[in-house]
Amino acid sequence: MNFKMFAAVMSVTVAGTAFGGFSKEKFRNPENIHSPAYFWMWNSKLEPEKLNAQLDDMLAHGMRSICIHPFPLDFRPNGVFDSSMSPDYLTEGYFRVFSNVVDHAASLGMNVWLYDEGGWPSGGACGQIAAADREGRFQKRFFGYGNGREPLALRARPYGPGSGNYPSIIEKGTTEEFIRRTHQSYKRYIGHHFGGAIKYTFMDEPAMPQDHYGANLGWTADFEEVFKRKKGYDIRPFAKAILDRKHTFDPEIVRQRIDYFDVMADLFVERFMKPIKDWDNANGLKSSGHLNGEDIPEWASRYGYGALLRSLRAMDVPGVDVIWRQLFPETPNTPGSRLPFPRYASSVAHQQGHMLSMTESFGIYGNSFTPDQMKWLVDYQLVRGINMFVFGYYNVSNAGQWMLLFEPHSGPVAPWWDMEKPYFEYMARTGQILADGRPAVDIAVYFDSRAFWAGGSETESAGAMHYAVADTLDKMNCEYEFVDDDSLAAAEVKDGRLHVGAMSYSTFVLPTSKWMRDDARAKLEEFRSKGGKVLTTDTIAEAKPVCRIGGRCAPWFRAAKRVNGSETLYFIVNETRHQAYVNIDFDEKGDVVRADPESGDFISVNRGKEGFGWQFPGYGSAIFIVGAKADKPATPNYDGDVRELKEGWTVRPLVSHSLGDDDFVISRINAAAVPTAIGDWRTLFGDHFSGKALYSCRFRCEKAEKVMLDLGKVGWTCSVRLNGKELPAKFFGPFCWEIETMAGENVLEVTVANMLANAVSDPVKRAKAAAKYPPNSTYDPRQRVWDRENHESGLMGPVRLR
Description:
single chain, 802 residues, alpha+beta, TIM Barrel, Immunoglobulin-like, 4 domains, 8-stranded parallel β-sheet, 7-stranded antiparallel β-sheet, 21 helices, 40 strands, globular
């Protein structure tokens, strides 16, 4: 299959989804592939008994998916990363352990992602290809000046330590050798799980030779021959000019420059991405993962992924990488970061007739990442089409450098681990129901790869307009997808709509188009001439929102629309930290239900002639379905008298998590409850206490009655018991429950967990740990700053009955 084009047999029905109404059964019991997987960092001795016990722990806490991430000794050693993984990577002993663990995961009904590297980037088998390449066949090749003092020439770069042992994945034969050493080896040991417990491979940041600083151009041994065959002229006479102006715009060589990057992009797909996908598909697997730098498409010439959407089309389940707070909500001190790149993966998936797209998220986000912020990041991607998640990090060991290496920590080392299950269920149910329908996206936005390759001011302006258009459409509550030259040229115009694979659009938005390919421009003109709407930045206001959201905060809401048979789903997200009341209405007539990811119920919504009003908490979301049948009546309003529980509270610490000399120390605390006022527990336990504490309050009621319990502000999550009975678990706010009190005395118990940020920001203990186990020089400057945030902890209230 030519990944520049779409297969002629592509159905207009999204593959794998039967459209007869949204399945309540799937919503209540979602497939394990929608349960988030943690990167399970294999960083110490691999003992099957310990590993299988950790799998049991994950499942008990609601995780039904896992991605084993080998961390071999040879992956960037000498203090960059410290690992003691044994048996060593890709040895017989390693595969025996791997097979044992996958067998156990399969017996638990878990989904296992097959990570294809030892470390990253994918393609080098953790240096084994380089070590065996005696003739230098797979070395990276560059056309350029070498170290800056040598004459212009084609050179092979010798292998070196660390990342220098990564081969050129676009040389002939490299990918086949990579598959032989990794995929084929895994097949010998766990191939019986392919298509079962193991459905997806995970590639991580594969990259072809690119030089960020303009001293060299990525090349191959046969690049000039390939280029002439594809473009019809010799590239060598233009190479010096392209190189000398690599990051500037030069109208004299812009055609050759774009052609150079276009051919390199072809090689990336043809020689790496496609062979991986072909092998996977032939062996019952689907390819997935993400590239490197996809969040900054205007830097395409600096990263090694070629044409971004073209490369993503060469995956069965395209994905993105969300690390280093590339996406983050606004805080009182920062404006946050909102970028459109999750839509790159979901656009490609939908156009190829697939509903699944994935994200690697949370990497290097710090231990101060709150539950509400975690929900924001998940919702931000869900509403933009992502529905499968791989998170960082659950470490086999948190000892040594790993105390401060990859944050946020997860698993038993995190104080809130016992309370996180509702979060995993929220993602699984929401991802499942969004994947259970056909995307009803009506707007396409031009993804101007060629302008991103043009260089200098052309690239900068194309990037600025790309983000401006995306931001404008977001604030208009428009749902949209991206279309590049390849897919536009291959599209079909029919009935006034642009059919791009399985999707069709009535509206096409042009942020920029100066360097659009001739065949793509011709298709766009055909679309316009046959009734299609083509908008520019001057006319973008004509774009139609996905639904009607009214209110002062409406520009900060996002919506996604899915259709299944006669039912239409709207997923609506409040992307601000402020609660907001909005008026909502849909084009479709009929009854409306709210699909509740916490309970799995379909709850009736009181819809009037002009829609309905809805109160969203900060970072809140709601799933509405028009035409579905409700399981429960509308939630009653609790607008009666408000009673605040201010007096009679006690608190006692239960467990502490702290930095020790060589590992985290988790200690149970046997302390008596002491009287307290609602508020920040640091006045009692100190600034650097991470752990859990139990708040208790006794209150009297004249009679039994149904009321709403509202805990107010919690730092940062909690579990609740009323009169000895556990209330439904919640991980993020608002912390409200419909309860029934007893006549007479009632006992309310609230167990609060805060975050590891308090413990790891202890200056004395952190300095001691860093001196003994030097942290990563790239990650630590970010994480140690972020770890000083969000230290307020405890039950802060006000706690009310209403």
